[in-house]
Q: What sequence folds into this?
């Protein structure tokens, strides 16, 4: 008991008697413990933020994508990717029985099938009012509409044949629609059909046959001849042709029409509504409420099946046209007879240019859809013909050495666009442009049957009103949105005008438009019954599955999704991809130049990286563990250096106690008791500072974490003081009489502050090694932590979710690096301070012999520089070795980092010497010289 009281008194007396040193040690322990506590909170905060970010953004429209066996590209397997056009090029492969098997798997919330049927050849009309271009004073005139067809943000362009509008004041008789051998006219005339315009369509002007419509075979929007006829009546109104009589109007409006491939897909209305809220995005009649109908035989037309469809409210294709409007005066009637003469006469007339315009294709699409929707209320009408149905394949890629992709072009197949048994039906003008997909015509009229299926628009759906999902976790929803493609380099961005690249009018182009027409799975038999498609018996292209009970990103949710996917694969043998936890990942793709002036483009396309969320969570857990370890190592080393410094500072006193009979265990207890006391006080201080400091740094530090500061400080202090205490206990009384620094081996003239400072480090090798080691740990920690950060970011960046998370964790990295380096710098400053204390008399002698304060400061700075170079080199070497192990390669960037680390260590240690150098100026020179004497 007496011995314990003596130790306590000794510890208390020493703390009071050497308050300055005790405070310095307390500050060191407090800094280390508080830093560790706040860093722990920062790392935990970062993990919570990361987990919260992942949880908030991980859920997409579906968790599992089921495709036919063999649909997955090797590229998708190699890179764990899912291409954005993963479904659009798949025409069937899954049966209705496959869908039933998937739905029967326990744990599924929704299993929504989709069937790509093919692309139809749909016309879109832009109304153009040319009333103000008509000169009422002219007897006959022609309004000429010159067109330049545009696509791909204007990079693809082609001149088209003009549109002619013939306006006459003379009497016109219009042909009536009807059967029979004779053709009747609105003026009462009757002419045998084969004797009028060689069986083609025309008019009678003042009783003369005018035949402006040539017989045309395979034509495109760019090559077809389009002629409008109008009569300007004496009352100023316009009369235009119609099958059952000429309507009149105050305005002369023509239609500039072009063809667009419109992909039609079939969905299960109720499943689709549960998956994305399709019913809420629909205006008009929902698919499940619109059964198919059959048309009548009005006008001699045969009866046809009409399949109800929903049309998208937005247009995806980037196609338009610029038009130039001009007027020509005709002094003579148009020639009778062959159409070539009529067209030549209109082209030969001198024209005056009036104005230019750019077609509003978006408004044209809305107008066309509204017209078709209005017709559907009268019995659906004839919206989009099913006589031209194309099934387009997927894109194949080549991988470049830099990891980018090159889309492989395919030859143009002209026969794929031939409409069997029909002539004069225009096709999109870009069908012979550079193609990246194979095209197969599965037209229903290939067998000669005149009966065809029509699509009647019963409503529209607005993709923007569908259930929204976070863009950070968006999976391919090509049913409702096109792939996102932007320029990958500045040249391409400039060519695109900093806009996205959109699908064009080529069905075989690189980008595929989402389905613009949706019908019901129940109507697939009617839709495909007469086709030559291979998907009649297995019509489904994919099944999108959402798993029940999935909330955020957790081990439980991941396991639920995995088990469902595993069961689907086992029951069906199909290609099953888990999209849960995925995120868009940009891929660079090169597109070769197009036929119509478009140059080569290098674009970035958002594919989907599978398993991103799991990579993020795994990486943040691994990084947190390493970060804790590094912080603890640096803290322990700093404390060990501080305690060892205190023991060295008291070596004479401890030797005296040993000489007076204190046993080794009492000296050991006294040293550890002092360290434990300081550690306890520092822990309490860290407890008090953790909360306010965390709030200042925007780091959430819990009370549990803050309370851990006390035992952490005590345990670290005891561990750090263990070796110095053992050394003090084993010390002999004579050790206190030896100087702390070795004397020079031989006397010589000082060679200057730099040389002497470096030589002084050799005189205290242990202390130099300790200071350099402390700094080396800091530098190594910073280097390795940088490598961890690099590896961590490398595992997740390149995806939208990964990039978002990456931004959240960099603040923690910065705090950790600063803390480790700061602790190393404090250790160096402590070593230099002790060097000055131990060589105080020697430094006083140098001052007395003429050394200036600046020279003495340079001496201390040189010692700091030497420690910095040594510690920086060792730390950088260790850090680079660890970094190379983590990254898997010794890269040029790591070597550059190593060089920077050495330089940073030297600069930091030199700066750390400033405080001891300032204390040097306060040494009592006269007193020290007197004591030395």
A:
């Amino acid at each position: 008991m007496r011995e314990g009281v003596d130790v306590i008194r000794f510890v208390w007396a020493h703390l009071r008697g050497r308050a300055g040193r005790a405070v310095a040690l307390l500050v060191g322990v407090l800094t280390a413990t508080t830093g560790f506590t706040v860093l722990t909170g920062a790392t935990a905060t970062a993990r919570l933020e990361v987990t919260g970010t992942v949880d908030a953004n991980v859920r997409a429209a579906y968790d599992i994508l089921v495709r036919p066996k063999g649909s997955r590209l090797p590229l998708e397997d190699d890179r764990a990717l899912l291409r954005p056009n993963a479904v659009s090029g798949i025409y069937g492969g899954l049966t209705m029985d496959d869908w039933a098997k998937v739905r029967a798997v326990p744990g599924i919330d929704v299993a929504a099938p989709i069937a790509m049927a093919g692309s139809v050849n749909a016309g879109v009309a832009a109304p153009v009012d040319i009333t103000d271009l008509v000169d009422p004073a002219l007897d006959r005139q022609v309004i000429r509409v010159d067109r330049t067809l545009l696509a791909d943000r204007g990079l693809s362009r082609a001149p088209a044949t003009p549109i002619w509008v013939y306006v006459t004041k003379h009497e016109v008789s219009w042909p009536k629609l009807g059967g029979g051998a004779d053709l009747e006219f609105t003026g009462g005339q009757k002419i045998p059909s084969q004797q009028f315009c060689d069986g083609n369509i025309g008019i009678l002007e003042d009783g003369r046959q005018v035949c402006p419509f040539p017989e045309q075979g395979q034509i495109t929007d760019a090559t077809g001849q389009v002629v409008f006829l109008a009569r300007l009546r004496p009352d100023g109104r316009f009369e235009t042709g119609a099958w059952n009589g000429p309507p009149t109007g105050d305005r002369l409006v023509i239609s500039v029409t072009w063809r667009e491939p419109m992909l039609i897909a079939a969905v299960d209305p109720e499943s689709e509504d549960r998956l994305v809220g399709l019913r809420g995005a629909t205006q008009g009649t929902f698919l499940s409420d619109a059964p198919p109908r059959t048309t009548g035989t009005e006008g001699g037309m045969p009866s046809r099946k009409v399949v109800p469809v929903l049309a998208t409210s937005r247009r995806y294709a980037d196609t338009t046209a610029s038009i130039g409007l001009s007027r020509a005066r005709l002094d003579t009637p148009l020639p009778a007879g062959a159409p070539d003469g009529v067209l030549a006469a209109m082209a030969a007339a001198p024209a005056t240019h009036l104005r230019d315009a750019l077609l509003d294709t978006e408004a044209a699409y809305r107008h066309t859809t509204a017209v078709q929707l209005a017709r559907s209320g009268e019995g659906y009408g004839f919206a989009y013909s099913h006589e031209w149905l194309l099934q387009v394949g997927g894109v194949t890629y080549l991988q470049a050495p830099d990891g980018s992709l090159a889309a492989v072009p395919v030859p143009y197949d002209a026969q794929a666009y031939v409409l069997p048994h029909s002539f004069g039906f225009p096709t999109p003008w870009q069908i012979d442009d550079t193609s990246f997909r194979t095209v197969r015509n599965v037209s229903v009229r290939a067998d000669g049957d005149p009966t065809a299926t029509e699509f009647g628009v019963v409503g529209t759906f607005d993709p923007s009103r569908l259930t929204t999902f976070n863009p950070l976790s968006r999976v391919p929803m090509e049913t409702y949105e096109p792939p996102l493609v932007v320029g990958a380099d500045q040249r391409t961005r400039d060519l695109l005008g900093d806009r996205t690249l959109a699908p064009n009018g080529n069905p075989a182009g690189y980008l595929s438009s989402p389905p613009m027409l949706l019908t019901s799975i129940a109507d697939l038999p009617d839709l495909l019954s007469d086709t030559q498609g291979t998907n009649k018996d297995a019509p489904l292209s994919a099944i999108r599955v959402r798993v029940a009970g999935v909330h955020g990103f957790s081990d439980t949710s991941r396991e639920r999704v995995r088990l469902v996917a595993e069961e689907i694969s086992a029951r069906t043998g199909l290609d099953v991809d888990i999209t849960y936890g995925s995120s868009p990942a940009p891929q660079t793709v090169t597109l070769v130049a197009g036929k119509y002036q478009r140059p080569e483009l290098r674009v970035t396309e958002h594919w989907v990286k599978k398993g991103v969320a799991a990579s993020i969570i795994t990486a943040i857990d691994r990084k947190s563990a390493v970060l804790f370890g590094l912080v603890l190592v640096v803290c322990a080393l700093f404390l060990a250096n501080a305690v060892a410094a205190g023991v060295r500072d008291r070596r004479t006193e401890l030797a005296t106690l040993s000489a007076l009979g204190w046993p080794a265990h009492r000296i050991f207890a006294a040293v550890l008791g002092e360290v434990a006391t300081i550690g306890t006080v520092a822990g309490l201080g860290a407890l008090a500072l953790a909360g306010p400091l965390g709030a200042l740094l925007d780091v959430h530090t819990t009370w549990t974490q803050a309370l851990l500061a006390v035992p952490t400080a005590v345990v670290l202090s005891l561990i750090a003081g263990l070796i110095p205490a053992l050394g003090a206990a084993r010390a002999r009384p004579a050790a206190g009489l030896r100087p702390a620094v070795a004397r020079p081996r031989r006397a010589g003239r000082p060679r200057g502050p730099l040389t002497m400072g470096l030589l002084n480090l050799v005189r205290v090798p242990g202390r130099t090694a300790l200071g350099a080691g402390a700094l080396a740990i800091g530098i190594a920690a910073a280097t390795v932590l940088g490598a961890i950060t690099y590896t961590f970011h490398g595992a997740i960046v390149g995806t939208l979710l990964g990039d978002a998370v990456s931004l959240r964790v960099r603040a923690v990295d910065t705090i950790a690096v600063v803390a480790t380096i700061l602790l190393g710098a404090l250790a160096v400053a402590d070593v230099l301070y002790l060097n000055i204390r131990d060589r105080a008399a020697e430094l006083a002698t140098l001052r007395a012999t003429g050394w200036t304060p600046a020279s003495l400061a340079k001496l201390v700075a040189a010692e700091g520089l030497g420690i910095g170079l040594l510690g920086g080199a060792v730390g950088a070497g260790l850090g680079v070795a660890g970094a190379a192990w983590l990254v898997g390669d010794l890269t040029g960037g790591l070597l550059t980092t190593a060089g920077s680390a050495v330089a940073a260590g030297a600069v930091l240690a030199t700066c750390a010497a400033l405080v001891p150098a300032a204390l040097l100026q306060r040494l009592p020179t006269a007193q020290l010289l007197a004591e030395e004497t």
